[in-house]
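Every protein is a chain of amino acids, and every chain bends into a shape of its own. The protein below has been through that process, and both of its lines are reproduced in full.
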Amino acid sequence: MGLAHQAPVQAGLAPWLAAFAMTGVVVAYLAATARLRRRGDAWPWLRDLSFAAGGAAVATAAVAPLPGEPFTAHMLQHLILGMAGPLLLVLARPVTLLLRILQPGRTRRTLLAVVQSRLAAVLVFPPVAALIDFGGLWMMYRTPLLSAVHDQPWAHALLHLRVFAAGMLFTTALCRLDPMRHRYSLALRAGTLVVASAAHSVLAKSLWAAPPPGLTFTAADLHAGAQLMYYGGDLVEVGLALVIVLDWYAEGGRTLRRERRRMDAVPSRV
């Protein structure tokens, strides 16, 4: 069985609900930034653009026919939902925006408590987030799971939701842009990215050799999809690495400024 008959999967209500939900989230984000600017607070326009682009990509991937043969189109959907879309969304710092727009009170305290809870700290511990994300991909592509949900629209939609949520978690853990309970080190985040990238590359190479169990594709389609996973994943991972490097550079600058202020505060001796 292949993925040639994609209509049962795409024709369900679930993908459209997901697309409408994502569109609503983008509209809410842009409304919040507009409100922030009206009251005189600064918020970079590039974040609006990043969030809108990420939301549009995710919504489109949920419902629109994507180019390529069945496996290639599926892999493009995977890259958008699990990697490129989450990176664009996380770069826009949505949690930071929500904390800034909310008035002091119970709702804001609850959100901050959730973000900085022990559970959140465990989930965004980079190795844990990587295991949830890439371990799930290995389970999806190297077990009969994908074949089992192929003709079940709601189950297939839940699988895509899981890919998106795991991608958001992994991207959040590595980028470290929104407030967190722990500020995990550069070395830990960079090391996790290297290991996760290797796991993703090995999975892509395994798909070049053999399709997911229970599914069949033409050799050309299988190879094109595996190549897209390999090189497309590399491209997004370069983006993640750039975010980590820029964070390291900014942290070094902050440390240098603190050191200069400390030295300036020390009275000179004649």
The CA atoms of residues 176 and 183 lie 7 Å apart. The chain has one domain: 7-258. Confidence is low (pLDDT under 50) at residues 4-10.
